[in-house]
């Protein structure tokens, strides 16, 4: 089993693993094909594809303006080289969901308190503004 055509996030160097549930092992199929043996029959639940999204959501320009927006398992995280003047979160219809002003260099927003969906995070620090779409 190997990767042939990559699309979307998988086309950007994303590491992809295949989990063999019968052997309880995971294999990095981004680096090499996975070979396995099986007896004839149906094995509809044997494999699972696993990947961890690349951490930085703002990788395209994060180094240019000194503001990073990314997520971990529990939080959206906004970091800046300088104190953040304002961090705000909007839903897709433009409603303000969260705002903090005059924050330190890092703001944690507990994403588990938000319903699943798309949000827009806007961060302002020293006349630099970064806006990113994020998924919960």
UniProtKB/TrEMBL annotation:
<dbReference type="Pfam" id="PF18962">
    <property type="entry name" value="Por_Secre_tail"/>
</dbReference>
<keyword id="KW-0732">Signal</keyword>
<feature type="domain" description="Secretion system C-terminal sorting">
    <location>
        <begin position="74"/>
        <end position="134"/>
    </location>
</feature>
<protein>
    <submittedName>
        <fullName>T9SS C-terminal target domain-containing protein</fullName>
    </submittedName>
</protein>
<dbReference type="InterPro" id="IPR026444">
    <property type="entry name" value="Secre_tail"/>
</dbReference>
